From TrEMBL:
Main location: cytoplasm
Function: Catalyzes the methyl esterification of L-isoaspartyl residues in peptides and proteins that result from spontaneous decomposition of normal L-aspartyl and L-asparaginyl residues. It plays a role in the repair and/or degradation of damaged proteins.
EC number: 2.1.1.77
Name the record gives this protein: Protein-L-isoaspartate O-methyltransferase
UniProtKB keywords: Cytoplasm, Methyltransferase, S-adenosyl-L-methionine, Transferase
Gene, per the UniProt record: pcm
Keyword Chaperone: no
Annotated compartments: Cytoplasm
Family from the record: Belongs to the methyltransferase superfamily. L-isoaspartyl/D-aspartyl protein methyltransferase family.
EC top class, as a word: transferase
Length: 226
């Protein structure tokens, strides 16, 4: 399938953010087991350097998480790739919910793949900056400032749900907003690290679960911050 990438060529950068530097990241992701060409292509074209502070831009195409302020991080590209790939396991998803907008990078990857994206962030400052990025890249991402643990009931059900902050347990309200045939990916675990879990809901609503990787996300927290 040809990916439907909705970015303008002007979004592509130069120098340390050049296509060559990005291609190196893609090869690294391939080497670490990412195989979905649609996902790799989205990571190739979405300018990750625009989702972090300029001072860190030279590190944008390293396969590492980076600080984005407010004690939060933009996820490691491999983790973004793995979570996105997991969404495309079953039927072609159409509507996807992300909990934890952060920099907006994961949402932008989903948007570049032609998905209808809904994303929720509890820190208003981060959300405002992410929204500017969506606008300037011409991405159609709907977002709200809320506690994402309640999901987005008015827009449910979703074919895919990505939780990009770690919690000690799965959040039932989110699983409930998954459509039959849908996939939810969430980092779950107590303490420092989490297991990246993938839940599948079949046509009858039965849930099966497997583990994709060991990960270290910032915590899923309650309450809103301006
Ligand atoms: N997906 C992001 C990664 C963000 S880090 C990216 O691509 O950059 C996790 C984010 O989840 C943080 O911005 C944090 O503020 C947010 N978060 C934590 N708990 C949340 C909650 N209950 N609801 C919404 N967002 C939450």
């Amino acid at each position: 399938m040809t990916p439907r990438l909705r970015l303008q060529p002007e979004a592509l950068g130069v120098g340390m953010t050049s296509q060559r530097v990005r291609d190196r990241l893609i090869e690294r992701l391939r080497g670490n087991g990412i195989t979905d060409e649609r996902v790799l292509n989205a990571i190739r074209v979405v300018p990750r350097h625009l989702f972090i502070d300029e001072a860190l831009a030279t590190r944008a195409y390293e396969d590492t998480a980076l600080p984005i302020g407010h004690g939060q991080t933009i996820s490691q590209p491999w983790v973004v790739a793995k979570m996105t790939e997991a969404l495309f396991d079953g039927a072609q998803p159409r509507r996807v919910l992300e909990v934890g907008t952060g920099s907006g990078y994961q949402a932008a990857i989903l948007g570049a793949l032609g998905l209808e994206v809904f994303t929720v962030e509890r820190i208003g400052d981060l959300l405002r900056v992410a929204r500017k990025r969506f606008r300037s890249l011409g991405l159609n991402v709907r977002s709200k400032h809320d506690d994402g643990r309640v999901g987005w009931p008015e827009e449910a059900p979703f074919d895919g749900i990505l939780v990009t902050a770690g919690a000690p347990a799965l959040v039932d309200a989110l699983t409930a907003q998954l459509a039959p045939g849908g996939v939810l990916v969430a980092p779950v675990g107590a303490g420092g690290g989490q297991s990246l879990l993938r839940l599948r809901k079949d046509a009858e609503g039965h849930i099966t679960q497997d583990t994709l990787a060991s990960v270290a996300f910032v915590p899923l927290l309650s309450g809103l911050v301006d």
